[in-house]
Design a protein that fits this description.
Length: about 450
């Protein structure tokens, strides 16, 4: 069991059953136990409990009465009822009272773990409802109800309580950082630091010092000792964005930390040990880089323990109305604007648009519309021209036979920059490459 783990209370008058359930759950949860419902009520008053696993038949107060009593002062707590006398009628009665699940003894360990994980999910939803979050808005600001997003969140909730390394893949603007936030917030490390670093934002020499820290005098300008991001994230989570941009040398150094948790500061000789959960993100297909020999196979498998693929916004258009409402509320308050909603015609245009910049592009479009709108309802004319003018077919690039690959690449980049009005970040997103890669490939053409 790790620090800050969710708390499960096991209530059963049979010591062997109670101990077995405790052992099964102890790795992932903080487990409390008692022998009857009366003791359980007292423990619930003294401890913040998320899930109760309670036997149906117990002396003094059975599992059903305990459920009713607990809800009076712990309204979000979730119950898994267990019984050796399981009947359909009893299961239905438990569900009507609000139990999350009903298990018949004996049950397999994986069945118990799945039931408790489900109950934790119900607890999060109940807390979200009581905190008054908007429709479709998750605890970490993730908005949407589409099946594609729902499947992503299901995996996030399952993996969050573990220490498994997670690789988040998705186009630019799909919300990879929000997924990292959720993985941290729903983990046992939630009260420890969540540290973020972009692997594409710094050159290799500075990135090494940023990740691992440096000693005084390690290089020109190193006037004092500095802790790196791994040290700062000790006990918590480190989010490595754009991990595909790591140089081969940095890939080796990262692999060592993932394998052993050990590293030295730049210019240092003391080996440091850290306990850090790594979440990596990329908008580039690592399988392609792996096949091309540009990404280490051993590091790939270290990062790819659990892989989460975020769907682009164009594949979940049913989420656009929820996202629009969310962003209207956000920027209405931020800009003190009396915006009440959006017209049907404008919403249809938003749902028909391809969104190459995904949710980030939609957010900027709504922010612009809220600021510029003259009336209380956002209209088509309030949307950016690229959207209000309708979805335009992507321009083609025609090249004659014999053109070198370098020339083709340069022409595609230049045409993409023209389409984005010179916005290099947006151009890189459309091309599926990092901004540093874009700058590098924009160098002068050299005849081959």
């Amino acid at each position: 069991m790790r620090a800050n783990a969710p708390t499960v209370l096991v209530v059963d008058d049979n010591p062997s059953v109670r101990d077995s359930v405790m052992r099964t759950l102890a790795h992932d949860y903080r487990v409390l136990a008692c022998a009857n419902g009366v003791e359980a009520v007292e423990m619930l008053r003294c401890h913040e409990v998320h899930v109760v696993v309670a036997d149906l038949k117990m002396p003094m107060m059975d599992g059903m009465k305990l459920l009713s009593a607990a809800r009076a002062f712990r309204p979000a707590v979730q119950f898994v009822i267990i019984s050796a006398y399981g009947t359909v009628a009893k299961a239905v009665e438990a569900m009507k009272l609000g139990a999350c699940d009903f298990l018949v003894k004996p049950f397999r360990r994986e069945v118990l773990c799945a039931a408790v994980a489900k109950a934790m999910d119900w607890w999060h939803r109940e807390v979200a409802k009581r905190e008054g979050r908007g429709a479709g808005e998750d605890a970490c600001g993730i908005v949407g109800r589409s099946p594609a997003l729902g499947e992503v969140l299901r995996v996030v909730r399952r993996v969050a309580p573990t220490s498994a390394t997670v690789l988040v893949e998705g186009e630019s603007g799909t919300g990879k950082e929000l997924i990292a936030d959720a993985l941290h917030r729903w983990s046992h490390r939630a009260n420890a630091p969540l540290v973020k670093v972009s692997c594409a934002a710094l050159p290799e020499t500075l990135l090494e010092a940023e990740l691992f820290g440096h000693e005084r005098g390690a290089f020109t300008g190193a006037l004092y000792q500095k802790k790196g991001r791994f040290e700062l994230a000790h006990g918590g989570t480190l989010f490595l964005d754009e991990v595909a941009q790591l140089s081969p040398a940095m890939q080796v150094k990262l692999l060592r930390v993932l394998q052993s948790g050990q590293f030295e500061r730049v210019g240092g000789t003391v080996t440091l040990q850290v306990d850090v959960r790594v979440v990596a993100a990329t908008n580039t297909d690592l399988d392609v880089l792996l096949a091309a020999g540009r990404f280490r196979e051993d590091l790939y498998y270290r990062l790819n323990v659990v892989r989460i693929k975020l769907p682009p916004l164009r594949e979940r258009p049913e989420d656009i109305p929820l996202l629009v409402d969310h962003f209207i509320a956000l920027y209405r308050a931020r800009n003190d604007r009396a915006i009440e909603g959006i017209s049907g015609a404008a919403l249809k245009l938003l749902q028909a648009y391809a969104w190459p910049g995904n949710v980030r592009e939609l957010e900027h479009a709504i922010e612009r519309a809220v600021v510029l709108a003259e009336g209380p309802i956002l209209q088509v004319e309030d949307l950016p021209p690229s959207i209000a003018g309708g979805a335009q077919p992507a321009p083609e690039v025609r090249v004659p036979l014999g053109t070198t690959m370098r020339e083709i690449e340069h022409e595609v980049i230049e045409r993409t920059l023209a389409r984005t009005g010179g916005d290099k970040t947006a151009a890189a997103a459309l091309l599926g490459i990092g901004r540093r890669t874009l700058y590098r490939r924009l160098g002068p053409r050299v005849p081959e």
